[in-house]
Design a protein that fits this description.
A hairpin with a 4-residue loop joins strand 7 and strand 8 (about 80-85). The chain has a single domain (about 5-370), classed as YVTN repeat-like/Quinoprotein amine dehydrogenase (Methylamine Dehydrogenase, Chain H). The protein has 2 helices and 29 strands. Strands 18-19-20-21-26 form a 5-stranded mixed beta sheet, with no helix packed on it. The protein is mainly beta and about 375 residues long. Helix content is about 5%, strand content about 45%.
Length: about 375
């Protein structure tokens, strides 16, 4: 199985992020430490171990323009790390949370970042130059449970969230003095901060891994019921499709083009979904060919068959009820994949390389061209 580079960094990796030039990777080995490695002379060398959080780091994002790292943790805190000479210096972010921070993502323009939390709250953080600190504005009383995922629309204003209440929501995050009125967000920048634009009730279970397509026309997220949901034209006249698959649920998703998406999760094997010329989304294949070639155990086959029968029927919108046989374990990843990150070069609109990390402590770099043709 060529074009997959696998690196065993720890016993377990919670999350990871790449530096702007893709030569360094930052990850959390399932504790309160932030490890930074650099690829030097055909091998990975540990450069830094950053200590500031008191509990597990649950989210990391590395800005592409400003070279800042933001981390969030179960200790309810967030830090923005700036590189000064050879050291990384942390700046505390005022989140005002009473529960764990669970996820984080920089906005496209990197003048804001969003934090999802177990406090049913989303913190949109920005830098106050006059006070030299990071502050947050809170989106409260909109979620009924923990916020598991956040995703920025390309216009830098709209923010999508997923929650364990089973819903996906879209909010305006326009902040006066931070976002210009000519931000290109159509009517979005006329809305007040925290105003809810859409609430999608497609899933009856926990929802994870929300993402926008490169041009922002399509929104996708995964349910814990082994379904994935695609919504077109969220702002104007939304239309939804539900794709059911027999295998285990997804935890994260990534658009590699406008008409192709990779999903990762409990099946330990990336799944490819694609839209045809009519816009109908469906499951295409698994990426890990080594794993799919192996034979499954009798118990695994029985479990997958029962799982597929239980969740193989779509409830909302258009659907693809055809499901593939379950794939056995044993391949690149040996445990749940919790994180998928694009390895995009500057100016690229199509993702040809991406990385995954999981509870097995492995970080894998995938070359998508070797697996499936990318739609143009």
């Amino acid at each position: 199985m060529a074009a997959v580079a696998v690196h065993q960094f720890a016993q377990c990796i919670t999350c990871h992020a790449w530096s702007p030039d893709r030569t360094m990777v930052a990850f959390c080995p399932n504790n309160n430490e932030l490890h930074i490695y650099k690829f030097i002379k055909d091998r990975w060398e540990k450069l830094h171990v950053l200590y500031k959080h008191d509990q597990i780091i649950s989210g990391i994002d590395w800005s592409m323009r400003s070279n800042k790292i933001v981390t969030v943790s179960h200790d309810r805190n967030s830090y923005v790390w700036n590189q000064e000479a050879s050291e990384w210096v942390p700046t505390l972010v005022i989140l005002r949370l009473n529960r764990a921070a669970l996820c984080v993502q920089w906005s496209p323009k990197e003048n804001k970042f969003a934090v999802g939390s177990g406090a049913k709250t989303v913190c949109v953080c920005y830098y106050e130059q006059e006070n030299n600190w990071w502050v947050s504005k809170l989106i409260r009383k909109k979620h009924n449970s923990s916020v598991t995922g956040v995703a920025w629309h390309p216009n830098n204003i709209l923010l999508a969230t997923t929650s364990t209440d089973g819903k996906c929501r879209v909010f305006s995050t326009f902040i006066k003095g931070v976002d210009p009125r000519d931000s290109g967000a159509s009517s979005s920048n006329e809305l007040k901060f925290g105003e809810q634009i859409a609430q999608l009730d497609l899933s009856f279970t926990w929802a994870f891994g929300v993402k926008w397509s490169p041009n922002g026309n399509t929104l996708a997220y995964a349910g814990h019921n082994s379904m994935i949901y695609f919504i077109e034209d969220v702002e104007s006249s939304p239309s939804a499709q539900t794709v059911a698959f027999r295998d285990l649920p997804l935890r994260d998703v990534l658009f590699v083009s406008e008409r192709m998406l990779i999903g990762v999760g409990f099946d330990c094997n990336p799944l490819v979904f694609a839209a045809d010329e009519t816009g109908l989304w469906s499951f295409v294949k698994f990426l890990d060919e080594k794993k799919t070639a192996q034979s499954s155990s009798k118990y695994g086959s029985q479990f997958s068959e029962a799982f597929g029968k239980l969740y193989g029927q779509s409830k909302h919108g258009a659907s693809n009820d055809a499901v593939e046989p379950s794939r056995p374990r044993g391949g690149v990843h040996e445990n749940c994949i919790t994180c998928i990150v694009p390895l995009r070069k500057g100016g690229e609109t199509v993702v040809k390389r991406f990385s995954t990390s999981g509870l097995d402590g492995k970080l894998a770099i995938w070359e998508l061209d070797d697996y499936i043709d990318l739609p143009q």
